[in-house]
């Protein structure tokens, strides 16, 4: 049977990709951020997961304001990146996983999640930056990826509680799959940040640290928040915590925190990193 062996939370800020492209990782501005990633990379290289399920949000590359599914899952054999207009270089194709992704999609629909199933989709920095962070030099081709896209841009957006329930359903689906696969989950985005408006540059460090603690020990407490709460406490883009909650919902067994880092500001964002080991 497939098993979930762990999870990672990480920022997906476009500027991270630009910093890596321009070899800025050890400059004073970026060093405290990038120095946190080698332990996570080492764990991934040791565990050698077969599949990574990435919870992310699309920022207009595949799903713009004219069509924005609440939840979408990719079932393709390959995913392409494209120029998003942020100045990030496009990356080589991402390898998809078709059998497990179709199993998850089918299971979700049978369990009353009306998810958009995408046999073709372009993936933006929400997915590509985490992959590049974990496997620098575009060394991610050996890992099969299942993208799970959550609407965090356009009202109405799914609630934190609903995203957590989506993760729970995906976790059950993965662990009912009849092939021996080791699966790692990525919860991407966040934490607190607001990129425009009167509160542009807003960061709530106390809230971010509290979220990191509760993701590990008491995720249900975070599901009591509304999206309006997240925007008020964590900035307009603070709703990206919903990707972390979906990831956490899929972890049904015992959690061990192996590594964490928090650094702010990075590109006007509070950037949190967690490495969680999962076992039944």
UniProtKB/TrEMBL annotation:
Domain called Extradiol ring-cleavage dioxygenase class III enzyme subunit B: residue spans: 7-269
Listed GO MF terms: ferrous iron binding; protocatechuate 4,5-dioxygenase activity
Enzyme class: oxidoreductase
EC nos: 1.13.11.8
InterPro entries for this protein: Xdiol_dOase_suB
Keyword Oxidoreductase: yes
Protein's name in the database: Protocatechuate 4,5-dioxygenase beta chain
Gene of this entry: ligB_2
